[in-house]
Amino acid sequence: MTLTIHDVAQRTGLTTYTLRYYAKEGLLDFVTRSSNKLGTRLFKESDLEFIYLIKCLKNAGLSIKEIKTFVDWTMAGDSTIAERRDMFQKRRTALQQQMADLQATLDVVNYKYWYYQVAEDAGTCAVHDGMPDAEIPEKFRQVKHRLSALDGIKDA
After folding, report:
1. What Pfam families does this protein's entry cite (predicted)?
2. Residue 113 has what pLDDT?
3. Can you list the domains of the chain with their CATH numbers?
C-alpha cells in the first residue's frame, strides 16, 4: 500500500509544504517515485518511521544540513555507524544541557509564583522582608539564595 504526501502529512503532523521542502533538500531521497512524468512520491508505511526520525532530529535542533548528512550516512550503510552514534551523543549532550537550563528557569518561575502568591495573600511584598528560611518551602530556598546573590535584588 502506498501513501500520498497528504496521507503522510496527516500521519506525521508535518505539512505537505514541509515534506516537499525536505524532499527538495534531499532528506527524502529514500522514497520511491512513480515512473510517470510527474515522478510522484510513493510513500510506504516503512518510510514513515524514517520521516518521524527526521522530525525528531529537527525538533532536537539539528539543521537541515546536519539531517541531510545523517540521511546520507544511513543510506551509506554500516560503514557510518560510528559517525551516527557520535552525532547522537553530541545531540544528547546538548539536549541534556538545554533541559538543565530549562529546569533552572522553571525553578525560578516556580519560586516567583510562590513569592507573589504569598505576597498577594498578605497584601504586600514586604511579607518576605526578613522571612526566615524555615518559612520558605525547602524547594525554593536555594533559588531564593541564588537570586539574592545576583545583586541583592529584593524583588525582580
Report:
1. MerR_1 (PF13411)
2. 97
3. 5-76 (1.10.1660.10), 90-149 (no CATH)
